[in-house]
Amino acid sequence: MTKRSCEEVEIMNDQQEKKTKEFTRRNFLKFAGGTVAAMAAIPSFNQIIAHAQESGQKLVTWEGSHAVSQYDPSKPVVYFTRDLSPEGVQKIYEKINQGITGKVGIKLHTGEPHGPNLLPIEYIKNLQRKIPHSSIVECNVMYKSPRRETKTHRETIKTNGFDFCPADILDADGDVMLPTGAKEFLDKHIDNFGGTFPFEPGVHLQEIAIGKNVSKYDSLFVYTHFKGHAMGGFGGSLKNIGIGMASGKVGKRMIHGDGWPLGKGFLERMVESGKAVTEHFKGHITYMNVLQNISVDCDCAGARAAKPTCNDIGIIGSTDILAADQACVDLIYQMPADQRRDIVERIESRLGLHQLEYMEALGMGSREYNLIEI
After folding, report:
1. Radius of gyration for the chain, computed over Cα atoms and rounded to the nearest angstrom
2. What's the rounded Cα separation, in Å, for the pair 106 and 100?
3. Tens of pLDDT along 71-110?
4. Which of 15, 112, 190, 346 could pair with 228 in a Cys bridge, judged by C-beta atoms 3.0 to 4.6 Å apart?
5. CA distances to 215, 335, 341 from 347, in Å
């Protein structure tokens, strides 16, 4: 055998070894993938099969959810923990804060005075201390409330314990108009009318009045108590910014309309407002929803808010607003019937799922997601 042929044999051996390794890897992945698919049909959350992932994380799903059964890099990641504590909040934030830089606004719902279902103040108090250059940001409200005027709104913030850091009432000095980007979407579907629209005919928003001080912030952390809502069905990240960032005297009136009608038109205007905020902070906005004290009522109901009938679930976080809210809805719908009954009735009676449908239509994110438990 010549020297050259010996070298060829060595090359062939190396190639065969690589093929063997690749074959083994492919079969392992094929086996693992088949295992995930087979286990994905278990409906009860307490019986969800957790599949080991890198770094000790677990990919979870169950029948009826929008969580994918095998990791899909084309889908956004939603992180989930059952650890309802300041540490749990910190763990989720560390997974989703890549784009949070510069001066940071923490958008949360400070609630009406003495609301019984407000999240434990320690959750956000402890986290805020670890977010440099951060402040709570809020806007005044439109309905009759001490939060309607800046002075008494600040008193309410203090009453509910949110005065542990700077709190900026964004519309204290007026508002600024942000484009929603909805016109191009609406025009496209009207011009190509095929008998149905993916939206409700009526008043839509080409721009929305947001609290003027929004321009002071480089990033926005949307920290949300996920619960029911009298008009939206549920209040998640979308509602927190769609209604919550709109100025009290102008923006909220644009969304609600005359007479405060319920239905798809209102929901779509709320989504359009939220889209304006997400586009304004694009690349520098992230979302956390806390599923605790899940009442049918929003924290804007104050002391009158209904007692929760759904057990606490956990905390989710994502950089995709639609995936974040969809994951919370999925988690609620898989709860036992006696626990989910009241909150699901509130969601469906207000057509609340249309929030998700219209966010998807406007290209605000994905309803399918990778659910990673940490």
Report:
1. 24
2. 11
3. 999 999 999 999 999 999 999 999 999 999 999 999 999 9
4. 346
5. 33, 14, 10
237 class by beta-carbon count within 10 Å (0-12 exposed, 13-18 middle, 19+ buried): buried
- 156: tokens are 């309410």
Residue of 149, 154, 155, 152 lying closest to 167 (CA atoms) = 154
Angle ∠(130,136,141) on CA atoms, nearest 5: 160
Cα 208 to chain centroid distance, Å, stands at: 21
From CA 66, how far away is CA 304, in angstroms rounded? 34
103 three-class SS: coil
The neighbouring-strand residues paired with 175 are 211
Rounded-to-integer distance, Cα 80 and Cα 67, Å: 12
Global model pTM greater than 0.90: no
| Helix, coil or strand: residue 45 | helix
Count CA atoms closer than 13 A to 276's CA, side-chain side.
Answer: 30
Q: What is the pLDDT of residue 195?
A: 61
Q: Give the span between the Cα atoms of 74 and 94, in whole angstroms.
A: 21
Q: What separation in angstroms does the CA of 367 have from each of 29, 251, 324?
A: 26, 27, 9
Beta bridge partners of 6: none
Residue 279, both tokens: 């586009």
Q: Which pair of tokens denotes residue 151?
A: 């002075």
Q: Does 128 score more than 80 pLDDT?
A: yes
Inter-CA distances, 15 with 10, 26, 337, Å:
9, 16, 57
Looking at the predicted structure, is the pLDDT value of residue 53 above 70? no
In whole numbers, what is the pLDDT of the chain averaged over residues? Answer: 87
Question: Cα 272–277–280 angle (5° rounding)?
Answer: 125
Distance, in Å, from the CA atom of 291 to the CA atom of 332, rounded to the nearest integer, reads 9
Identity at 357, one-letter amino acid code = E
